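ESCALATION

Customer reports they have been waiting on this structure for their group meeting. Please prioritize. Original submission:
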Amino acid sequence: MRVLLTRLSALGDIVHTWPLADALTRSESPVELAWVVEEPFLPLVSAHPGVTRAIPVATRRWRRAPFAASTRREISEARRLLREFAPEVALDPQGLYKSAVWGWLSGAPERVGLARELRREALSGLCYTRTVAPPPGLRHVIDLNFSLAESLGRAAPYGASPDGTFLLRGSSPWEGRAAVALLPGTGGKGKAWPAESFTALARQTADRGLPVTVVWGPGQRALAESIVGRAGSGVALAPPTSLLELAALLARCAVVVGGDTGPVHLAASLGVPTVAVFVATDPERNGPRGPRVRVVTAARTGATGGRARSGAAGEASVAEVLDALMGALREAGHVAH
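Update from on-call: job pushed to the front of the queue and completed.
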């Protein structure tokens, strides 16, 4: 069976879709799997052992120049690759029209999406031939995605965690003292733990003799530099990284601390001790999953309508996060009990 999977972005959402790809391809009768993804995140998909073909698109860039010759050419090439793959089924866990339309463009006779109450846009339903929902009581996006695999007769390992260790193949082993990595940036307004809280956490962690590295992504360098500058000695700025370099950097850390941001989900999938601080998104739906994850939350639970935003229910204190950080370090054997 040839299956098309569409999850265009972003980093954390792609990490949360890896278990669905695993469920489709790790079975006695594996499928051929093509995955449509935004071009910046292509390395997270093309390296996946179950993906037969990764098809990059550039919807954000195309919207800026919809009538350009290059845009028409690239869209035509994406459609050609879809038709060449000729999927029998298209699955859309993203639940947006911009993702669902690729299943329709592929010509797949069967196009499956999540039930209306579980996705963000009703318009996406125009591209589906049917919709599905998981068993009652399941709320995490990973488990919602599994219902798509179950609709094809595949086992749905509800409760499973992403495994991103395939990204580390070929990376060199770390031969230095592991640092505590702080990730102060997020991809959405209102989702970030305050910069002054990260600064205090960095200073108090460094005061305990633990090296701290502040990691940053596109558009976040100034924020990271301000935290490093105010936190004082023992706190360093991470170098710029590609996605694969970021995975290698996080895998070498003693513990990773951040908000609801893609690199936190990536770190958790690599088995790195991870502390996630949620201030406005529902961790029951979008929290990181992994073997060594701790969540400090000040957010409400019960997000609905396919959205992770639930709003704040309080504040996450520096003391709470520091306690979770030290607990993660002790559990991993990095500090004495």
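Sent to customer with the following note: The mean pLDDT is 93.
Escalation resolved.
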